[in-house]
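Objective 1b: paired records.
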Amino acid sequence: MKSKEEIIHSSIIKVTHSLDLSSKKLTDSIFNFLPLSRVIDNSLIKNIDLSNNSIEFLCTKSFSDCNSLFTINSIDLSNNKINDEGLRNLIIRNFSTNRNYFTNLTTLNLKSNKLTHIGLKHIYDSKTLSSQISSLNLESNMLGNEGLKYLSLCSFFPLIKTLILSRNSITSDGISYLSESRSLGNLTELYFYGNEIGDDGINYLTQCSFLTKLRILDLGSNNIKSAGIKSFSKCIFLDKLEILDFSYNNIESQGISYLNDCIFLINLTKLDIKSCNIKYGGMKYLINMKYFYKLNEINLYDNKLGYYGVNYLLKCNFFDRLVTLNLRENDLQSSGISPFYERNTVSQIRTLNLSSNNLLNEGVKTLFACSCFINVSILNLSTNSIGVKGMKYLSESKIFNNLTELNLSSNNIGEEGILYIKDFNFISKLKSLNLYNNKIDKKIEKQYEEFYNFITYDYF
């Protein structure tokens, strides 16, 4: 059995310029066995991965006493137990020597630790972290609004492009602090998923006129309602946006109507509005979207669209440009597939998710005859009560000949239905077929898995 010191040495040797100590169950005591300073000082290491361990104080003596930290480009410390004092230890060398040892640091990942606003105050007070940082991940900590206050005051992040602040108990007050920042003008990606910024937070966002380069904005699960979308329509400086996420916000159909006023979304390619309670009434408003010139991916998961929602979707100007369409959990039933069957023109859709729609055998029979889906290569039909007949319909389909990935997990295929696999017209192209939870005997599952190397039984 390898000693802890041998584990570290072997990890260093494996990848040139990288020190990979992720998921080694390390604690701070590991550095009593082998000082990290000696490892770095005698190497040309540029990337350090210490993620998924139990590090708490960042080995004050070993790490902060290192003389070659200026060589490091990226540090991954995600999923540890680092608290505010631990973060202070990371920069303590700079405190004591008044010298910046992180000159070349461009990526710092502190996701899923125990940092509060005090940790960000340490960063602000030190004023020594690299001005070259382009990516900062602070997701799943306890920063709160005060943390955002100190972050917005940091004037030494002029090149930061990616800022991840998801799940940090940030409210509208935090966005208010952000609007006063003078050093985040180069941001291209901003993630706020899982906070509580609400409609008032969106109103403050309209004052962040320095976000002119933003390409990705994640506002999912933030207690935003239709009033917040109305305020968002005033963010005319966001005309570079390519990806917009409003998922898990109760914006309803009225919120979709306000998206019509977002004249700046001319470069949007992906819109995520899953679980927004828009129903088929909201889809009616989507028909009138005038500015989605480049939209090719839309996530409509869990919106209670039903048959009428699909009808409206097919009338949207952007439908013919869609490459990815997610309609999971929309109570489509077999009738919700018929509008696709009636459509004559071929769509560009490559990835189609129809999971959990109670399609039954009759629904998939209609689906497998839909000529508009001839280009689909990835298809998810999990949890649709598909049985033996459904497998027979699939084996007879002349439409889905380009499938490379098919998810049929959690249906009722059984041992009789699995026999139809050999008749699939697309079997030569298939790379993955998920048959998890289909009432198939374990011995037969194993036999088919050994015979067809593309079969999996993965839980999704």
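Objective 1b, second protein:
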Amino acid sequence: MAAKKTKAKKTSSTKIPSIKSVSTSGSFSQPRPTRRYLAPVTAQPSNNRGANSFPVVAIGASAGGLEAFELFFRNMPEDNNMAFVLIPHLSPEHKSIMPEILSRYSKMSIVQAENGMKVNPNCVYIIPPDKDMSILHRTLQLLDPVERRSIRHPIDFFFRSLAQDQGENAICIVLSGTGTEGTLGLKDVKVEGGLVLVQDPKTAKYDGMPASAIATGLADYVLPPDRMPAYLLAYVKNPVHHLPRHLEQTEAKPLDELQKIFVLVRSKTGHDFSRYKHSTIMRRIERRMAVLQIENPADYVTYIRNSPQEVDTLFKELLIRVTNFFRDPEAYDTLRQKLYPSFSRISLRAALYGFGSPDAPQARRPIPWPFFSKSMSRR
């Protein structure tokens, strides 16, 4: 698609949507139920809150991605306090001219990433051809592909690295492309409390990647590329991102609202989270408030009372970390070594229950023992 010479929009022209526009926009605000377990994330991200904190936004795209990139950056103001890392599928034999093309649509600094380059807000970094890329302490690391002729997954690789390094400050976006790239990586971003945006398949030149991402049920927003910047700005500016840790744990009023949320979740799902670690629960609730652009915990209580579907969404959010067990090799190895030999010596048909499975309505799905034993025997 030929690039058009269009001036970048001014910051003042970007309109931040209200909570009503978010909660009543159909599929844009309410993702479908997930059907898969989440991949484990073993690294512990550092505390990214503070005066120097800013989100790192990773954007993955394949075929048709250039047009989506152009629409996105035309509508992203120069002063946004976010760093952007672009992972398009590039030909390994040709030099990338994407920095030059995107510079026509944005006044931000747009460069090709180099090894050891520190990411800064209001800047865009593009992966070089024939490289894999990760991030450590906000520093980009370039790696040679392990097998150059094999099928590579640079988008999943970077999404996962970003989740491990930035935790709650990680934001990933899946744009136009064929295949399923980005689907596995976005799950890790979600596990660590990050934000997931996906291009509306109706606006994508190739809908394979967006459709696969949406099918996980983990997308916070499904939007056309030109509408994503306004939602990102509203999400980043939400006050819940700037609450000091000690206020989360000591203020009486938030704790009072937390108890009300526990009651609402229990009445809808039958599960009582009141004995879970409150700081962990608060982080998940704050994440939902930021996604919905709600600033006051009392307003969130009112919202979930009037929106039963939000109770289901919050319930799934609270269970995300629990489901890591089912993809934890060490857990399966322990059961295989200690439990399976005992059952294999006696005539018993056992059933194991997957507590916390996000795709089971009551978070309890029976797994037949023969299936479980085969799963372990393949490891």
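Residues 328-377 form one domain. Residues 1-47, 243-252, 347-379 have pLDDT under 50 and may be disordered.
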